[in-house]
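Lecture notes, unit on binding sites. The following record was shown on slide 14. It pairs a sequence with s-citryldethia Coenzyme A.
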Amino acid sequence: AGLPRLYDPGFATTAAYSSSITFIDGGKGILRHRGYPIEQLVDKVGFDELSYLLIFGALPTAYNLALWQQAQSQRVTLPTCVRSVITAFSPSAHPMSILIAALSAMSASRTSLNPAYSGQTVYSDAAGRREAIVTCMSAMPVIVAAIYRHTAGLPIFSASAVPHKQSFATRFLHMLNGGDQSKSLANTLDILLMLHADHEQNCSTSAVRHLSSSGVDIFSSMCGGVAALYGPLHGGACESVLRMLTRIGNVDNIPNFLERVKRRQERLMGFGHRIYKNYDPRARIIQQEARRVFEVVGTVDPLIQVATELERTALQDDFFVQRKLYPNVDFYSGIIYKAMGFEPQFFPVLFALGRSAGWIAHWNEFLDDPDRRIARPHQLYIGVKGPRDVPDVTQR
Ligand code: SDX
């Protein structure tokens, strides 16, 4: 309650939602989840605690954390229809397209969690809501790992291979390649999942809220979130950043590239943000993590030199300074994912894996709102005034 439900002239033509999950001050580069600054959360807790905080509103006790991890690690069986949908795609298909289809298959397979089959009650009682949340949180790593293995031409693991009571990141990496994970790799992934977990009313989260408002099941709402995130201006940017850095090739080509950006023949992917007109706090953390990863893997990817020099040059250039264009969360994340062995087209899927915690939190918050209504943004009609008569055929 408080903010106008769907439309206010001050909000141009987009819907306005009220939420207590995440606070952003774009001018100051501040990001807080339930009041906790992202910098402290990354220092002191992991993705499992953060996902619990976003969804249930408080940091978990050690006991609740163990239950949260155990509940997810007990649901790691990929439904047959979801496996069939994933493997029906060519391994060369874009993994975000496969993820959308797989989540839709989940919607059809978990009928007890789908109001279309069981009526609205499934979401109005606490047990049904919790079952939907845990099923969705645990299904994402299972589905994403299966898509990764299928697109890499590898057999999809059976559920039994997954160790119990592990962190979300460790469980996911285990489902990815079954081997013992380097603690450092799991720690880096955990930080990346945290930095992508939630970001208030971004395009994909608002899509999930819109879909949720019609009463559709959680998996179908998530399909909409993934589809929005797929776009190169949103989650697809991390993939575009890596392709841009590869195209630039070396630091000598940066001045010419930036001139093309100023002539609007290129876009500086990974720069700019609708809300942040200052440094994206997540970009700072990811930049530090990128340097730490390269110390661990022992090589420094030449692309990080290009990225660092590109950032340094752009931040001194009036074109970017005047437009308050700073690196955003996507500028460095792709370099780390690449160092971890992922291909560019898989980067937005990893973004979706972290963001699933935020989507579920907003879905849950929307259902808790006693005076929730179906989303119906106001339209500013700018067409022909009318009414006017349809001309006879002879006059057309
Ligand atoms: C994410 O909303 C969220 O929170 C998203 C996100 C999340 O966590 O969910 O933070 C994740 O999506 C981050 C953004 C990733 N996308 C990119 O990196 C793509 C490149 N960035 C841009 O396309 C752009 O900055 C947006 C889409 C991110 C923001 O666009 P806006 O706020 O609508 O800005 P704008 O298009 O109104 O641009 C203002 C000016 C324009 O110049 P003028 O026409 O006024 O002269 O800045 C220019 C733009 O041309 N501009 C850029 C630019 N971004 C804006 N010019 C070159 N390169 C860019 N990246």
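Take-home: Residues 126-151 form the longest helix (26 residues).
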